[in-house]
Write a structure and sequence with these properties.
Blueprint: H1 2-6, H2 26-32, H3 39-57, H4 60-69, H5 71-81, H6 86-89, H7 95-107
Helix pairs in contact: 3-4, 4-5, 4-7
């Protein structure tokens, strides 16, 4: 995921403020108890956060969407779609997320 998030550039910072290899938002990093500017902690934090999303959604595509767009946005999209099916839900998510999920899935060979 670090390649999709930051192209393996620890110093990268997104417009919304996500930082590091796994592009953690400051509040997310704080909640995970990691320093987003430390590469090892950033990767561990990102893996932990993705693990939480996998447990919450039980679906890799929805978990990746939550990692990228935030779980609140995924919850809203599920409600609007009336489904937990990725093809239905994705239509209600930002274009960035619609592109991000298949990109990561392809890198993972899925």
């Amino acid at each position: 995921m670090a390649d999709a998030e930051s192209s393996f550039n620890q110093k990268v910072k997104s417009g919304p403020g996500a930082t590091g290899l796994m592009q953690l938002m400051p509040a997310t990093a704080k909640g995970l108890g990691v320093d987003p500017n430390d590469p090892e902690q950033n990767v561990l934090g990102g893996a932990t956060y993705l693990s939480y999303q996998l447990k919450k959604y039980g679906d890799t595509q929805l978990a990746l969407a939550a990692y990228n767009a935030g779980p609140g946005n995924v919850d809203k999209a599920i409600k609007k779609a009336g489904s937990r099916d990725w093809n239905a839900v994705s239509k209600f998510l930002p274009k960035e997320t619609q592109n991000y999920v298949p990109k990561v899935m392809k890198k993972w060979g899925r």
